[in-house]
Structure formats: C-alpha cells, structure tokens
Amino acid sequence: MTTPRIRTRFAPSPTGDLHIGSARSALYPYLWAKHNQGDFLLRIEDTDQSRTQEGSLESITDGLKWLGLEWDEGPEVGGDFGPYFQSERLELYKTYAQKLLDTKHAYYCFCTKDRLDQMRLDQQANKQAPRYDKTCRRLSAEAIQKELDSNTSHVIRLAVPEEGSVVVEDLLRGTVSFEAKDVDDQVIMKSDGFPTYHLANVVDDHHMEITHVIRGEEWLPSLPKHVLLYQAFGWEQPVFVHLSLFLAKEGGKVSKRKGAMGIFAFRDQGYLKEAILNFCAMLGWNPKTGQEIFSIEELIAAFELKHINIPNPLFETDKLNWLNQQYLKQLPLSDILRRIEELAKVAKEAQPYQDFLAWFTAFEPKRQESIWEALRERISTLLEATETVNWLKSPSYQAGDLVWKKSTKDAALQALLAAKEQFVSLPEDQYLRSSLEPTIIDWIKTTEWGNGDILWPVRYALTGQQKSPSPFEMAELLGKNETISRLETAIKMLSE
After folding, report:
1. In this predicted model, what pLDDT tens digit does every residue of 102-149 receive, in sequence order?
2. What angle separates helix 433-445 from helix 365-375, to the nearest 10 degrees?
C-alpha cells in the first residue's frame, strides 16, 4: 500500500488581518508539507458572511506572500480541488447535509430565536451547560413536513448520539475521549443556506484530500463533532494536530485584542520576515538540537510534528527582538537599504523611513558602511535605525547636564575646550568611529582626566541625552563641522 501524498492546508476566515497566531497556524502545515515534498493549500472559509471584513482577504494573502509562505493550491493559483472559497461551494454542502438527513445523522430544527434565548436563560438559572435541548429531534415526520411545506425558517443540526463516547487520536495529545452527552447537537446548516464551519470544514478537508489537519487547540472542543461527521459519511479521518495557544507575558492567552498584532504591524515596526518566521516556528516547536536561528530551508529540513510541544509557549517580544537583531547583523547593507526602501513605500507610518533614506543615502558608500556598522550593534529593528535622524536634531539641555558626576562646571568647561582642540585637529576623513575612538581614548590617557570627565560632556554636547550612541558614533553621524559647532555651543553655555 502506497503512502498518500502529504497535503496540508491553512483555512482562515476573512474576518481580520493576518496576525502572529494565524501566521504560525499557516507556517506549521507549510513546513510539514514541504518537509514531505507534499502540497500546501490555502482555503478561504467565508461562509459567515456577517463577519467578513473588507480588506481582510488581501491582508491574509499579502501577508503570506510577504512571509514567503506561497501556497501550491488556492486563490490566485487554482488547482484540481477548487473552488477554494467556501462561499462558492454551497451546493456541495447542501448535498452532504441532505445525506445526513437521509441517514438520520442530522435533523431539521424549527426553533425560533426567542425560544432558543429563553432556553439558554433557563439553563443558566439552573446552572446547566448551554446546549440545544433536542426538542425538534423528537418531531414526527408529519410535523416536520408540515413545517417545511409552510416554509418555516429552519436550520439543520447534527444528531449527536445520546450515549456512549467519541474517541479520537490527536498526534500530540494521544487518545482523546468525549462523552456524547456533553456534545451539543451543533447547527451544521444555517437558515440562510450557508453551512457552519463544522460541516464545510469536514467536507472540504475530505474532498481536498487533506492528510493532516494542523490547527489551534481552540478547535479541540469541536473535534467530536467533526469525528461524528467523518463517521457518518464513512470517510477516513485525517491526522489531527491541535497546537497549544501561546501565553501573554503578563498572563492569559494571547488574542487579537491582547498582544497578537497583525503581521504588517510587525513589518512596519521594522521586523524582518525571516525573524518573524523563526520566532513563529519556535513558539511551540523544539528542534531538539539547541539551534535557535533557522533559514526557511533549514526549518523545512528540521521540522517534525512530533517535536511540537503541548505546554503553552510564552509570547516574548524580547526573543523576537533578539532574533531580529541577529538577522540585521547578518544582512549586507544593500539588502538593509532595499528593505527600508520597501517600508518607505508601504508602511502605515512611512515618514521615519523616508526621512532616514533621505539622510543616509546622502553619504558616500564608505561612510554609509561605517555608520551602519555602528548602528547595527545597538538596534533591534529597522524602525530603531530611523531614530538616528532624531539624534541629528539640535539638542536641548541645561548647562548643568554637561557636568560629570562630582565634577564642576569649570572642570567640564576645561574638558570640553581640550576635547574640542582634539576634534578640530582631526581631518574630515578620520570622522569615523573606527578612527575617532582610539585616537581620543589614547589622548585622554595622556591627560589628568578620566574617560568620563571628557566623554560625558562631549556626549551631552552632541546629543543632549543621557542615553544615546557614543560620542564617537555621534561625531561620525554628524560630521566634523556639526560636531565642532555643537561643542562650541556647549562651551558657550558653560562660559556664561
């Protein structure tokens, strides 16, 4: 018997932007399909028309493309198992809903909204779990036909067995058992003729020959309903893998409203797609090797479903910042500039990137390389790099800020006067950190001053800030003329 070709899918609803959680839900099936030379599908589950948001589809598809998670079948690509929008497959769902009715695995429900609302209120009052009370399941064939002939609004519900249990295997969690009495008679076809997630999902996964269903653990309570549908149709079940949701650092699960920002929000903050993919991969997966930084090719080669962890991983932006910094250090400046140019065009707040480019590209290539070499050691994102432009603005400070620790105003003045002479003596082509730092430090050693006595007032004169790049980096960024001008301004302030 031949092993079936591995086929996985990412099946989002167009109800919002692609965010970190959904990116991981796309990444894992993508990696598993590619690891096995299989197929990765994109299917749009748009049967809940009331929740569909304009622009959401583009956010999802553009986000996947930006991350490099190209799908083998789906919207824009096509394939042999389409259509790939559930709203275009309604007749198929109606056919299978009728089969369930014919085999008594489903039934018509004519209950009004008012009755259902009252039923839930009564259940709450009696401290009962909210679920349908099966009233319409007990209707006679004649009563059902009468309601149908009268065109009474209705839904179709799954007829869950009233006793026994539903047992299913999850690749990560092992055997999972659900008591049938605790499973609701779920609506599978709504009154508007659209299926609910449960029916459409099972029908599509079967017809599209999906071998592995990899999704978040929020779908675990729905698993018995899906298993019952597979059994009712006599279909082979796929391999189920339910991923643990990740936790916010302050506690609780991350949601769209609680920290799970959209992918493009991360992009606009200057995070690289490689770092985001690496970060998402490590949110619940462990390669068992100690390796932390992976290219997408390395992720594909190393990825194994059995190495996914069940405990909820912690969503830590500190880790993402570290990963992003590692990638920034690896990339050549030409690649960095290309990405900043992209952000200058597409970021929601593009002005910082535009301002940075206007300033940075005015330098000759040698100066650009030197400036970036200094920057890359202190930034975690491309957006942080653009803050360099802010350092170039005329600083605002008080004369007292220039005085180092237990020093005095006069001592700070004398230190700045001496430092200015050194900076004046250096030619413009030596205004690189690699030249300035050893020259000035060696000079300080020949004086009665310590490093702080000189470098503190110089830093404040150049930046007006306690926390900033070193005075050598600032001198490189400012150039000789502006460096001398700012030192003279500080000297004047201390002299008055």
Report:
1. 999 999 999 999 999 999 999 999 999 899 999 999 999 999 999 999
2. 60
Q: Which fold has domain 7-86+246-314?
A: Rossmann fold (3.40.50)
Q: In this predicted structure, what is the pLDDT of residue 257?
A: 47
CATH topology for 399-495?
Arc Repressor Mutant, subunit A (1.10.10)
- CA end-to-end distance (rounded Å), the chain: 92
The CA-based angle 216-56-284, given to 5 degrees, is 25
Candidates 94, 134, 190, 256; catalytic one:
256
Note the pLDDT tens digit of each residue in 442-462. 999 999 999 999 999 999 999
Q: Which residue has better confidence, 40 or 404?
A: 40
- Parallel, antiparallel, or unpaired: how do β-strands 187-189 and 155-158 relate? antiparallel
Q: Residue 393 annotated as binding?
A: no
3-state secondary structure labels for all residues of the chain: CCCCCCEEEECCCCCCCCEHHHHHHHHHHHHHHHHCCCEEEECECCCCHHHCCCCHHHHHHHHHHHHCCCCCEECCCECCCCCCEHHHCHHHHHHHHHHHHHCCCEEEECCCHHHHHHHHHHHHHCCCCCCCCCHHHHCCHHHHHHHHHCCCCCEEEECCCCCCEEEEEECCCEEEEEEHHHCCCCEEECCCCCECHHHHHHHHHHHCCCCEEEEEHHHHHHHHHHHHHHHHHCCCCCEEEEECCCEECCCCECECCEECCEHHHHHHCCCCHHHHHHHHHHCCECCCCCCCCCCHHHHHHHCCHHHECCCCCEECHHHHHHHHHHHHHHCCHHHHHHHHHHHHHHCCCCHHHHHHHHHHCCCCHHHHHHHHHHHCCCCCCHHHHHCHHHHCCCCCCCHHHHCCCCCCHHHHHHHHHHHHHHHHHCCHHHCCHHHHHHHHHHHHHCCCCCHHHHHHHHHHHHHCCCCCCCHHHHHHHHCHHHHHHHHHHHHHHHHC
Distance, C-alpha 235 to centroid of its chain:
35
Q: Does the active-site annotation cover 480?
A: no
Residues of the chain with CATH 3.40.50.620: 7-86+246-314, 89-243
Identify whether the C-beta of residue 325 lies closer than 8 Å to the C-beta of residue 312.
no
According to CATH, the superfamily of the domain at 89-243 is: HUPs (3.40.50.620)
What confidence tier does 261 reach under pLDDT thresholds 50, 70, 90?
Answer: confident
